[in-house]
């Protein structure tokens, strides 16, 4: 893995991944794709890491999408390879067994918005500018954007944004439900860490199962979804953590969950 294009740090149960190509607005090239893929696979099985925050280096950009300078050098089959790789990577983020928060610290266009859509929660700073602008390059969103945007904000608004390639600022992103929360640029990481810290107080198996039930349940009819919810619930019943939650309530103390 090339350590420079992706920075990783851990504090408490939180891993912070920083896309680190600020000279090109953290645009994603093959090298960054591979680094992110490797890191996500590590974090999937890393004990003690409960929440992942993804952000971009520098003051201006979260991620300006695919690296268009690299793209200009790729032949058709290499472009296809890039698209399959980025789509699979973002799907693995969406389906990761731990919550992922996008800390959108500026420009998030094309693949940058798609990356945030693959995350579970999006918090944006006031200077954020988001959009699926691919049609302006005579291509379409290829890393899940045509599927995840309408599921998040509704079909009509998603079509408007994809057909026009229009960018939205932080206020509008909040208003249309594209992001969960907006804040001042300086406090973005703190706000993300605050939310992550709250998640860290919960039961790890419960969070994994809740994410699983929401993700898979949303893709089906309600009765199948409810069956998925039941099965996910059943996983939590025999856990030590469930008994710890009840004991802590009875003893009026904070629970200590172990993910067992
Ligand atoms: N790929 C490669 N390089 C990119 C990039 C991308 N997606 N987006 C920005 N950059 C580079 C610029 O080429 C420039 O590098 P240079 O100084 O060597 O020319 C640098 O990042 C800064 O960008 P610049 O355009 O000068 O900044 P800006 O503030 O005027 O505009 C953007 C920022 C993001 C609005 C503009 O760069 C842009 O539209 N980028 C393309 C975004 C896009 O369409 N993404 C979807 C890809 S499918």
Number of domains: 2
Strand content: 15-25%
The average pLDDT value, as a whole number, equals: 97
- What is the CATH topology descriptor of the largest domain? 2-enoyl-CoA Hydratase, Chain A, domain 1
Bound molecules: coenzyme A
What is the terminal separation in angstroms?
Answer: 32 Å
How would a crystallographer describe the biggest sheet?
A: 6 strands, mixed
- Secondary structure: number of strands: 10
Order of helices and strands: EEHEEHHEEHEEHHEHEHHHH
Question: How does the overall form come out from the CA principal axes?
Answer: globular
Key structural traits:
2-enoyl-CoA Hydratase, Chain A, domain 1, six-stranded mixed β-sheet, 2 domains, globular, 260 residues, alpha/beta, 16% strand, Lyase 2-enoyl-coa Hydratase, Chain  A, domain 2, binds coenzyme A, 11 helices
């Amino acid at each position: 893995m090339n350590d420079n294009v992706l920075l990783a740090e851990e504090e408490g149960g939180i891993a912070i991944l920083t896309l680190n190509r600020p000279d090109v607005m953290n645009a994603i090239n093959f090298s960054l794709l591979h680094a992110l893929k490797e890191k996500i696979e590590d974090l999937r099985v890393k004990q003690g890491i409960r929440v992942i925050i993804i952000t971009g280096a520098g003051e201006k950009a979260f991620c300006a999408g695919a690296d268009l300078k690299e793209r200009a050098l790729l032949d058709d089959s290499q472009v296809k390879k890039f698209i399959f790789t980025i789509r699979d990577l973002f799907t693995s983020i969406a389906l990761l067994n731990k919550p992922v928060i996008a800390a959108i610290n500026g420009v998030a266009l094309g693949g940058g918005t798609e990356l945030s859509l693959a995350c579970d929660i999006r918090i944006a700073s006031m200077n954020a500018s988001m959009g699926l602008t691919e049609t302006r390059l005579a291509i379409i969103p290829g890393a899940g954007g045509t599927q995840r945007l309408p599921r998040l904000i509704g079909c009509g608004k998603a079509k408007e944004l994809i057909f026009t390639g229009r960018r939205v600022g932080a206020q509008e992103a909040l208003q249309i439900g594209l992001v969960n929360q907006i804040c001042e640029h300086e406090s973005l990481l703190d706000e993300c860490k605050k939310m992550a810290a709250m998640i860290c107080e919960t039961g790890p198996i419960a969070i994994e199962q809740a994410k699983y039930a929401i993700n898979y349940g949303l893709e089906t009819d309600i009765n199948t979804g409810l069956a998925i919810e039941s099965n996910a619930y059943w996983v939590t019943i025999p856990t030590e953590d469930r008994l710890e939650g009840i004991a802590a309530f009875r003893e009026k103390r904070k629970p200590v969950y172990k993910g067992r």
